[in-house]
Amino acid sequence: MIFIFQNSEEKKAIPKLLDKLDGWWDAIILKLPNVAIAIIVLVGSYILANFLGNLLLKILRKRMQNRSVRRVIAKALKVVIVLGGFFIALGVLDLDKALTSILAGAGVVALAIGLALQSTLSNTFSGILLSFLPRLNIGDYVETNDHGGFVHEISMRNLVLRRPDGQFVVMPNSKFIEEPFVNYSLVNRGRVSVTCGIAYGTNLHNVKAMVLKKLEAEFPQNDDERIEFYYTQFNDSSIDFMVRFWVDFVKKSQMYAAQDKAILLINDLFNTNGIEIPFPIRTLNVSKLQLENIDDIFNKKE
Description:
Layout: H1 2-63, H2 67-92, H3 96-116, H4 118-132, E1 141-143, E2 148-154, E3 158-162, E4 168-172, H5 173-178, E5 182-183, E6 189-198, H6 204-218, E7 228-234, E8 239-248, H7 252-273, H8 288-301
Antiparallel strand pairs: 1-2, 1-5, 2-3, 3-4, 6-8, 7-8
Helix pairs in contact: 1-2, 6-7
């Protein structure tokens, strides 16, 4: 009897299975237009993503020197367009519940990845900001609190500086963008300072007039610029002064060259006019008794 019952149950299950398959087939037939539209949307989004990605690359080549950042931005645009087409296709297929589940799962995964790669993402976004920063370009000479050099490369993670001694400094983008830096290449001219001292008893007015006249002839100033001369202090063995003037420079070597030229000019000027540049002198007052004691010490050693 059990065998007969199982056979009867199997006979009942087969029609149910066929009915179910027929229902699925009918549903597939009814969904064929939606499936076709979904496929067209996916293919169209892929083609559109490639077109807009390549167009964005051409635009970024003219405005951004960082190749790696250009590629990442173009790929990000492609991914966004393709994902948009995928979600639209799911909506066409009436898979709203699946879409909701995918978005929820993607949000959880994105949060986990963001927490795990917090430092890396910070450097990545900093690299993108540096690439769009109008005050920083490849080849500029910049100085941070600890380093100085020419901007050699800006990648998605690091900024590379080539120091004047030929060595390279690699620092995270986030560290560079969070700290103040000086870009010497932003302006074509800068002010250079030179300090010196002259001996007591020198005619200060004549020295000031001679130095200003000499530097004005060698370093022409623009309309809104001038050479400045200031006496700064009475030092132990000299009266110190500082002279400031404007020159063309976009890197440190040009500034050093201007300082070198000004120092040579001032030194030659002082030598020609008999003006003394004193060096530190220390005078020791020794009594006669102390000298005799020193002589006795040396005589005993002999």
